[in-house]
UniProtKB/TrEMBL annotation:
Domain Protein kinase residues, every copy: 13-281
Organism: Sorangium cellulosum
SUPFAM superfamilies: Protein kinase-like (PK-like)
Biased composition (Pro residues): 316-327
Stated name of the protein: non-specific serine/threonine protein kinase
Binding-site residues for ATP, renumbered to this chain: K42
Length: 381
């Protein structure tokens, strides 16, 4: 696909440079020559463009972003098909780093860093859930942090709704994945996802957010295994080590928020993104040293919590599993840089066969630097 550099596709998008590529396609920096706007352009390989399921997933990503309409969702600007059948998507061009890169660079993050990030992600997910969309593949590399946007620091964008579930749409769009298939990145799967047969609703995303907060706080994922099946068994049957066992000086109440989000039974978790967000805000507002944290939109010297719960989509139902569990390949968009170094002092998570890379070092489906930025997000060697 590098032969496209310098070319103008579909009469309006100049291909400037390659950002990342992999088995499914490539992501380029581009320019809309008609309005002189810098963009990111994601192209499926021609062979992938002929596969109906891959095309449906590709298009669903664009549809989800358009349907949600949140400032914290990566904006999709255009979708099209080239004369040779290649599918392309045009997205806003972002510069910054993923949460995964930030954890990799810093080892672990304190609440003063994680709370503003998580609040913004929960705002985005709350908007998605209100639109009847469940992400189902949240992970550190799908959380993108811009240094500044509209005068705000550490502004968050949620990426990659390619495996999302449209729970409020009728017909074939109800579920674009095979019945009973395991969908998502294994380390961040909820127990109901790992089982592959239980109903999946917005609380699956809340569980994944709990895992993200656990990893950001402790520097490691709650469950690890040598094989994919062993990992699923642990997620379904075992209890993760308490966060304060890994970070002895961690506030017990903050640890309790993480544990509630990661409860094995969906009914024991936060029931909405608003409830989760309010718990974080209330915890921070009660601590003077954190009371003026920036959330990306505003500061909260003293918090007045909303009295009305967030409206969320009703739980979607899924038929019993009829096919063996399958996993979405990691790093399907690849990276120019390949695997990064292990996190110093934290050890290296053993690879799970068939999953490509470890959770801390996973290259996400947007390619190098998330496919929407030209700035490297890997730590210097």
């Amino acid at each position: 696909m590098t032969a496209l550099i310098g070319e103008i596709i579909d009469g309006k998008y100049r291909i400037v440079r390659l950002l990342g590529q992999g088995g499914m396609g490539a992501v380029f920096e581009g320019e809309n020559v008609r309005i002189r706007r810098r963009v990111a352009i994601k192209l499926l390989h021609a062979t992938i463009s002929s596969q109906a399921e891959s095309v449906a997933r590709f298009e669903r990503e664009a549809q989800a972003a358009a349907r949600i309409g949140s400032d914290h969702i990566c904006e999709v600007l255009d979708l099209g098909v080239l004369v040779d059948g290649t599918r392309y998507m045009v997205m806003e061009y972002l510069e910054g780093e993923t949460l995964g890169a930030k954890i990799q660079r810093m080892g672990r993050l304190g609440p003063e860093t994680t709370v503003p990030i998580m609040i913004q992600v929960l705002e985005a997910l709350g908007a998605a859930h209100a639109a009847g969309i469940i992400h189902r593949d949240l992970k550190p590399d799908n959380i993108f942090i811009l240094p500044t946007k509209a005068g705000l620091s550490n502004f968050v964008k949620v990426l990659d709704f390619g495996v999302s579930k449209f729970s409020q749409l009728a017909g074939s769009e109800m579920s674009m994945t095979r019945t009973g298939a395991v969908v998502g990145t294994p380390y961040y799967m909820s127990p109901e996802q790992a089982r592959g047969s239980s109903p999946v609703d917005q609380r699956t995303d809340i569980y994944a957010m709990g895992v993200l907060l656990y990893q950001a706080t402790t520097g490691q994922v709650p469950f690890d295994a040598e094989t994919f099946n062993e990992l699923l068994f642990k997620i379904v049957l075992e209890t993760a080590p308490l966060p304060q066992q890994l970070v002895p000086d961690l506030d017990v109440e903050f640890s309790g928020i993480i544990q509630k989000a990661m409860a094995r039974e969906p009914g024991a978790r936060f029931q909405s993104c608003a409830e989760f967000k309010n718990a974080l805000l209330a915890w921070a507002a009660a601590r003077p040293s954190l009371a003026m944290l920036t959330t990306g939109r505003a500061t909260f010297p003293r918090l007045s919590l909303p009295s009305q719960p967030e409206m969320v989509a009703p739980p979607a139902t899924m038929p019993p599993a009829t096919t063996p569990p399958a996993v979405r390949p990691e790093g399907s968009w690849g990276s120019q840089n390949g695997h990064g170094p292990p996190v110093p002092g934290l050890g290296q998570t053993p690879p799970v066969p068939g999953l490509g890379q470890t959770p801390q070092l996973t290259a996400n489906s947007w390619g190098a630097s998330s496919g929407v930025t030209g700035r490297s997000t890997r730590p210097p060697s």
